[in-house]
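Posting this for the archive.
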Amino acid sequence: MPAVGGIVTNGNKAYPGNLTPFVMMTCIVAAMGGLIFGYDIGISGGVTTMDTFLSKFFPGVYRKKKASADTNQYCKYNSQTLTMFTSSLYLAALLASLVASTVTRKFGRKPSMLFGGALFCTGAIINGFAQAVWMLILGRILLGFGIGFANQSVPLYLSEMAPYKYRGALNIGFQLSITIGILVAEILNYFFAKIDGSLGWRLSLGGAVVPALIIIVGSLVLPDTPNSMIERGQREEAREKLKKIRGIDAVDEEFDDLVAASDASKQVKHPWRNLLQRKYRPHLSMAILIPFFQQLTGINVIMFYAPVLFETIGFKNDAALMSSVVTGSVNVAATVVSIYGVDKWGRRFLFLEGGTQMFICQVKILPSTSFFFHHYFQLFMRLSAIIDS
């Protein structure tokens, strides 16, 4: 009985269940947890191009930015402190993710989402009222801790709530929220940059409070998942909850499999060591290499630093911010297409299509590196073949 997306299936067996309004509402609210991650991805790059922000916290960068136009635009943003402001969030998120799974398993998905939202809200408030660089970095660290917990618990919650036939689409709802958060942040940066004084960047950074409050309220009103209740010994309550979620009474088969999977997982004494066993190496390799090569395309640089990148190639401040809005809009549109097609066309099709599209774009943008991307594409095709097998 392999676990698929947090819900157990026995081979190719599909459990009965309906896409009830109850499930739709809970999944929509839970998916809003992606807003906090998306908002911070989109907000930091735009804020670091605002003159009022740079002049207050990074005067050296501001002076280089206003220096002679002959200076390379990229070099003007060469500051370790500025880089620390941006990267501290993601380092903190990495550290938080190492403990978030344990917290989520022992205390449930809802407390993990609540804790993540509270940390994120605190970090947003500190950043919005920041008076020194250390306050910016402290706020970003708290934001990162919040993202680490939310990014671990929300996708798991969605997987466990979603019916078998709609699990792919509802899971991508989290990614849709991320892309919407990025787009909203980029739009706000464009308008807030026009505000004189420090109010503009404070509104951009402090605006992260809004998605934080959404996930906090959501974690308080959302129901717990049957999987989480079974793990904590609440089996009869879990059975009734599963009936309500699926919209049918015939849930005994799925419930029994969930209980069996929970009991089996408790018998595993060394889960991390088991991952290194030979029979699990293909799964472990896929789990590492797929996101690794996705990040290697440079998409994170584009999402995090889009306004800065556009400025370095000659765009004015307004044009750079608007260009990042266009990029974010395309990102949202592509995610909507994925939601439509993930259960209709399959995961492998989207994987191949997305990889091929990225390969073509990389070769088009950087023709001098086509040799490297040729080998990257060959390895990508081998990975897809392993997935298919």
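The longest strand covers residues 3-4. The chain has 20 helices and two strands.
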